[in-house]
Amino acid sequence: MTGYAAAVAPSPRGELGIELRSVNSRFLDLQFRTVEELRGLEPMLRAQITARVGRGKVDCRVYFTGSSTSVDRQAVDPAALQNLARLAGEARRAFPDGAPLSIADVLRWPGVLAEQPVDDERLRACVEGLLSQVLVELVGSRVREGERLSGIVRARIADMRRRIDEVAPLVPQAVAAYQEKLAQRLRDAIGGSEEERIRAEVAIFGVKVDVDEELSRLGAHLDEVERVLDAGGAAGKRLDFLSQELNREANTLASKAATQKIAQCGLELKLLVEQVREQVQNIE
Question: Please, are residues 62 and 14 in contact by the beta-carbon 8 Å criterion?
Fold first, then answer.
């Protein structure tokens, strides 16, 4: 399912940002874009996302806003400053008329200003906490989309039930008419002297065009789809399997139909099943 969530928060390294985007996919596919110094946290990021998201292509971006070097983390290195003072004293003795170093010159000297080390544990805790917050927002957006998709699927299920209810009463009459038509053709072809053989052949072909069993299985599969939707939770793969079974029964119904109306019902069911399949592939 599609979804988007993002948030920022302060961290020992500066303002931290995490952005999650998800699009439809039959399986879980994680992609990470993180700043170099946070590469080591990717296993933790993967574990947290996998624990909350089971399906979809998810893009995770972790970044720091602003410059990669925070000014408030810089400090003067006493050893480098002492070494610079020694060098400056030696330079003044060699060049007494030379201009002294300014404060700006001192701060620009390589090594005088150094970044204070970041507390890795604190930074990790900040990333974990922010990711947990963003995941709650992402899962919430996916749940809302899932509810909308569930409504669409239920509407298609209701349409399929109406088609089945319309055609089910026609099956006995259609089978009887087909058998009578077939019997008359056989009488014309082989004569009326073999009535027992005609009845046997008609009975065999009557079973082949009787779609009552297919209609019953379609109804059972529709009941299961509604049960899975009512149960909630991760249902996408189960619904995908059920849509394949519905499509199989609709194909059989269309191929065995003894009348044009039953065949048309089978084709309409196939169209509705395909619409359901398109939606359930987006449901986690």
Answer: no
CATH of domain 3-68+118-141: 3.30.230.10
Q: Which pair of structure tokens corresponds to residue 192?
A: 């009326």
What does the domain layout of the chain look like in residue ranges? 3-68+118-141, 78-111, 146-280
- The DSSP code sequence of 94-138 is H-TTSPPPPHHHHHHSTTTEEEPPP-HHHHHHHHHHHHHHHHHHH
pTM more than 0.70? no
Tens digit of each residue's pLDDT (9 = 90 or more) over 115-173? 555 557 888 889 999 999 999 999 888 888 888 888 889 999 999 999 888 888 877 66
